[in-house]
Amino acid sequence: MAISQLRSVRKPSGGKYKSKGRKQRAYELGSEPAFTGLGKRRAKNMRTMGNHLRIRLLATDTANLFDPKTRKYEQAKIKTISGNPANRHFVRRNIMTKGAIIETDKGKARITSRPGQDGAVNAVLIS
Per the domain annotation, does 57 fall within a domain? Predict the structure, then answer.
């Protein structure tokens, strides 16, 4: 069954809205979250509206790390996820989202990109 981002027919109180219902439209389609994990790089291409392409990152073990002191980027190996403000259970499952704290071989870093939608893990070194 398709995931719809259409407003619900029901109000928060449980009553129904007066406007008539209608069929779902293609532009209201949603998708399951990617839940980018830790492991060998796996990605999936997704077609979006306007025939654009979006890379959905399913798993990765490297990050593009920015060091604010030297103002340089370098690739770093991700060891584990140590914190995730989006969901505390994502830490146990090693799921990366924007804002997650990752342990790398260069130190701790915060993810600044959206891995499930950008197709890359960009992070800023915090220690």
Answer: yes
Q: 97, 115 in Cβ contact below 8 A?
A: yes
CATH, residue 47: 3.10.290.70
- What pLDDT, on a 0 to 100 scale, did the predictor assign at position 36? 96
Q: Tell me how many domains the chain contains.
A: 1
Assess if residue 78 is contained within a domain: yes
Could you read off the pLDDT of 5-57 as tens digits, one per residue? 988 889 999 999 988 778 888 899 888 999 999 999 999 999 988 999 999 99
- What residue spans of 1-127 are helical by DSSP H? 89-92, 115-118
Could you tell me the pLDDT band of residue 127, with boundaries at 50, 70 and 90?
confident
From the list 126, 104, 127, 102, the residue with the least C-alpha distance to 115 is 102
What global pTM score does this model have?
A: 0.83
Angle at 111 between CA 106 and CA 113, to 5 degrees: 130
